[in-house]
Structures are given as C-alpha cells and as structure tokens.
Amino acid sequence: MDSKDVLLEAKGLQAWYGAAQILYDVDLNVRRGEVVALMGRNGAGKSTTLKTLMGMLAKRKGQIRFMGKDISKSDPHDAARLGLGFVPEDRRVFTDLTVMENLAVGRQPARHWPDGTAAPLWTPEALFKLFPNLGEMPQRPGGRMSGGEQQMLTVARTLMGNPYLVLLDEPSEGVAPVIVEQMAQMILELKAQGVSILLSEQNMHFAELVSDRAYVLEKGQIRYQASMAELAANDEVRRSYLSV
Asked: What CATH number labels 3-241?
C-alpha cells in the first residue's frame, strides 16, 4: 500500500461514552478512490467509530491522520475544513430551511489534491443531477420531506463542502427500497468522480454492491478485514459477526 494514497488512517482508536468504553484499539485506513464498509451488528461500534474519526467524542485515544495531518485532537469543524465530510444516521436537516438553503449552509471553497489537481467540486446543479428528486423541490422546507428525501439532502449538503472523503453512517437504514437503490447508485457515482467513502452498514447486499473492502466490528474491536469479495464468500465470518 502506497502511503501517499492513504487519505484516512486510524491506529489504536479507543473511545468512551462516559465511563463506558466502546472502542478498543481499532486500526483502519481508507485510500484515495476507495469505498470501504465498516460492518457489524447493532451496537458493534460502527457509528461510534465514525463519530470518533470526526472528532465528535470528547473522550478518545489513539492516532487519526487525514490527508497527512494529525487530527487526533481536532474538533469536528476542524476536520470538516480539512475536507472530511460526515453524514449522520439521524440526518439532521434544517427543517425550517429550504433545500437550497440547506445546501448553502454546507458550502465550502474548492479544494485541490496535494499534487495540485482539482478535487471534485459540487454545486447545487451538479447535486440535482445526482439526486433528481431534490431538483424537483428546491424551495421545499426540509421539514416537509420524506425520510429518504432528507437522507439525500443530508448527503448533498455534506458534498457542498467538497470533501475528499465522506463518513457515511448507515445509508440504507430506515429508508424505502427505492431510496436504498438510489443511495447505492449515488455512492458508485461519487467513487467514479474521485470521492472516497467510509460507510457503516449492516446490510450485506448493499455493502457488497458499493464497497471495495470491509472491516468487521464486534464489541468495539475489528474482528476481520478483507476485500468485499472475500467477505461475501466467507460464510463463517458472516454467520459469526453479521447474521441477526
């Protein structure tokens, strides 16, 4: 693995909610142009891992490097300014703001890769091509949208920050099958345009459609890592750590 290609790397990641330790020495990385799935059952620590990487948990240990910079002690807004995007599971749209206003909240300047080439630049027009549903309702308040539409809006708002890498929490959770299909197509399109993604997911079929590699979490520890094809073929691992 060429270290120049590694966008995000965590070593020995630990995290707590109050006195309760949730993560235990998690090591992972995401390379440029990759979609990586963080798999596991409910309560395995997937969402906590993403929040810890984003700097959202006050009590944490370990090293986190993003774009060559140490962000182990950074706040979420610092990580966002560096080009790390976060899409929470609970969406968090601004319900009183329109689609266009929600997008404007996320806007950040254009970015460039270390070699000087331009990183993907997102505009409302480009996002409406990615999410045609949103293009049909630019003036609709966020509070008058379905759960699936709010999920799309949250992703679109994050992309307005022109991130190098997106942390995507449970994209298929609690939305209609047609939206799940649209989310899968969206992830593949983002990958094609050079956006890397680390997603937490329980849905094996969804993860298999979009991901290059996978880490499997159980009780806050990485139990298995492999290509997605290898995970899909490993019945024992899927039975032990992913089956309900």
From this structure: 3.40.50.300
Provide the residue-wise pLDDT of the chain in tens; the chain has 244 residues: 456 699 999 999 999 999 999 999 999 999 999 999 999 999 999 999 999 999 999 999 999 999 999 999 999 999 999 999 999 988 789 999 999 999 999 999 999 999 999 999 999 999 999 999 999 999 999 999 998 899 999 999 999 999 999 999 998 887 788 888 888 999 999 999 999 999 999 999 999 999 999 999 999 999 999 999 999 999 999 999 998 5
Tell me the pTM. Answer: 0.94
The sheet carrying 213-218 orders its strands as: 84-87, 165-169, 196-201, 35-39, 213-218, 221-227
* Intra-chain end-to-end CA distance of the chain, in Å: 34
Q: Which amino acid is at 240?
A: S
Residue 203's contacts (CB-CB under 8 Å, 6 or more residues apart) are 172, 173, 180
C-alpha distances in Å from residue 168, one per residue of 3, 34, 116, 137: 23, 13, 26, 24
**Tokens representing residue 27 in the block:** 């090591």
Contact present, 198 and 30 (Cβ < 8 Å): yes
Taking the CB of residue 18, how many other CB atoms lie within 10 A of it?
7
Phi, psi of 160 (to 5 degrees): -65, -20
